[in-house]
Amino acid sequence: ALEEDRGRVPRGRAFHSAAVLDQVAGSAQVRVLLYGGIADSPGKETIIANDGGADQLLRLSPINTALTISDSEILVIDVANRRVSRPALETASSFPASIFSGGAALPGGGLLTIGGHGLQNTTSSDPPLLPVTSTTVVLPQPQKPSPTPTMSPDLGRWLLGPSVTPLPGDQALVLGAAL
After folding, report:
1. CA-to-CA distance for 26 and 29, rounded, in angstroms?
2. HSE value, Cβ hemisphere, 13 Å, CA-based, for 130
3. What's CA 76's distance to the chain center, in Å?
4. pLDDT per residue over 30-62, tens digit each?
5. Which H or E run contains 175?
6. Which of 27, 36, 75, 91 is the most exposed place for a label (fewest CB within 10 A)?
7. Within 13 Å of residue 18, how many CA atoms lie on the same side as its CB?
8. What is the rounded CA–CA span in Å between residue 133 and residue 43?
9. Are 164 and 113 spatial neighbours (Cβ–Cβ below 8 Å)?
10. DSSP state string for 24-78
């Protein structure tokens, strides 16, 4: 197990992508990028989504208005000391807010994500889906404390939860049904 900074309760999240971004030069610290997914209120270690009561089976609904689409986040893991810290990601607003995107770690570090959906800000119990029809690439950027994503132009297709497999030559195999 890894120890968090004292007094900090991690925010529970699900349906996200994660990948090693890079290693901090000259140290045993590794930066991991967390992208998208859903989260509960800050300070909750788990996602609670059972609105039906304790006697019912847990049904996790990614459309539950109590849950939000997670901002991207950086974890700095000190492998030698088994500690994790969560420095501020100043570029978080430049990442598309997405759930159910396909994601894969890139060889040599970084993350590729494709598709998914966002939610419109609303108090409705059935908010409309906003399709994410682009790709996001985050390459290793060890010299920058907050990495910057590169987004592709519109793919013209909405893919929900596709599989993503990086291939040689800056290519990827993406399998999924277009909605």
Report:
1. 9
2. 11
3. 15
4. 999 999 888 766 665 555 555 555 554 444 554
5. strand 171-175
6. 27
7. 14
8. 32
9. yes
10. -TTSSEEEEEEE--EE-STT-SS----TT-TTS-----TT-TTSEEPPPEEEEEE
